[in-house]
Amino acid sequence: MDNKKNEKKEDPCWNGYHQLGMKTKDSKKVPDCVPDEKAKTSKKK
């Protein structure tokens, strides 16, 4: 039962979102999650 708490989640974003990096929010570093469509177009640039 405790295994779920100890497992590290690889993708911190919701389903349909992709992490592009980190951003600062309220002086803390948080994952910068964007919708999958934007993530795909951002990688091409």
From TrEMBL:
Sequence ranges of Basic and acidic residues compositional bias: 1-12, 23-45
Domain of life, source organism: Bacteria
Region (Disordered): 1-45
This protein's name: Uncharacterized protein
